[in-house]
């Protein structure tokens, strides 16, 4: 992605929520570090310290963990203009309890915890932006929990595809199954009975 | 609860996170409305518009929904110094998809959506406080989702009791079961086999 396009992607994203002057945005943007990753590459590994959150410019990430029986659970996908990290570890300064890696090649903007907090202190509108963003994440997480408790796999699959149709092409079916908390076979059976 | 105690409870809660001058806190506090509820009384009913969030002074609340088969799912308990609402409805200005009611008699401080947003605009430290609070809620919600996907009922029951030992006395066992997503009988069988 060209430098101008990188900057514009973040600017468009922020300006949907709050207003920064050009000078303020340049200052804000100067705290982000551009990073490129290859498909399959790890961004956050369980057990490591977490000091950054990531804004997705291109590609698709997954945050996941693998339990004692080696079953994978996917907590979240992250597509362009989404944010990803292990927020529990990031905010609490503890070791990661989940992994984040790349489903496809990906371009990211990395922001450290210290820089986010500094920017929030210095620019009230940036604090507003991050409050808004966490509100959205919180609500999505509550909705997912409710759906997980109440709905069957078929319903949740259709809900997911209706909400994020782009996942259908970007994400292999075994990962969709791991997001829904079922095996690839169970998911297939629903659609090729 | 005495007026002085009400004010002190909120002040102590806020001051754990941010600093407001006495004048700022008085202004902040003036936007809250004190409310008393009886055990079993409804605070938010599914299908109604939601315009407030609630800070718990005393007592215990539950947020829940009941599915088509009349099975109750508990999304969250709220004990003293916790906050509760249907945040999805509150932020999106839509109708409630969950209910909130009182497990015990309860005293609450009610803050409207408009007043929260006004206070956040006017006082940067208040914006910081609410960002911090939502971050905590988001992380708790993600942890609960992970635990729901990965752990069995016995583990989740013990995790809940270790995290919030006060629930054991405040909340009837059938509600604990509804929080864990199982029947009262299943929960009993684990502890009286």
TrEMBL record, chains A, B:
Database matches in CDD domains: CAP_ED
Superkingdom of source: Bacteria
InterPro entries linked: cNMP-bd_dom, cNMP-bd_dom_sf, RmlC-like_jellyroll
Gene3D superfamilies from the UniProt entry: Jelly Rolls
Occurrences of domain Cyclic nucleotide-binding (ranges): 35-121
A Pfam family: cNMP_binding
Protein name per Swiss-Prot or TrEMBL: Crp/Fnr family transcriptional regulator
Organism: Chitinophaga agri
């Amino acid at each position: 992605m060209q430098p101008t396009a990188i900057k514009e992607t973040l600017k468009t994203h922020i300006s949907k929520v709050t207003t920064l002057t050009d000078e303020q945005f340049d200052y804000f943007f100067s705290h982000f570090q551009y990073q490129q990753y290859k498909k399959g590459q790890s961004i956050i590994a369980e057990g490591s310290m977490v000091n950054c959150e990531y804004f997705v410019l291109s590609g698709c990430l997954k945050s996941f963990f693998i339990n004692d029986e080696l079953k994978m659970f996917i907590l979240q996908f992250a597509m362009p203009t989404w944010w990803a990290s292990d927020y529990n570890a990031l905010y609490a300064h503890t070791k990661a309890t989940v992994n984040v890696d790349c489903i496809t090649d990906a371009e990211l903007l990395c922001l450290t915890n210290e820089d986010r907090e500094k920017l929030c202190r210095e620019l009230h509108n940036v604090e507003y932006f991050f409050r808004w963003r966490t509100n959205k994440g919180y609500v999505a997480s509550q909705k997912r929990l409710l759906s997980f408790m109440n709905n069957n796999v078929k319903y949740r699959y259709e809900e997911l595809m209706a909400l994020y149709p782009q996942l259908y092409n970007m994400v292999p079916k075994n990962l969709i199954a791991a997001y829904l908390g079922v095996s690839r076979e169970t998911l297939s059976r629903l659609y090729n009975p």
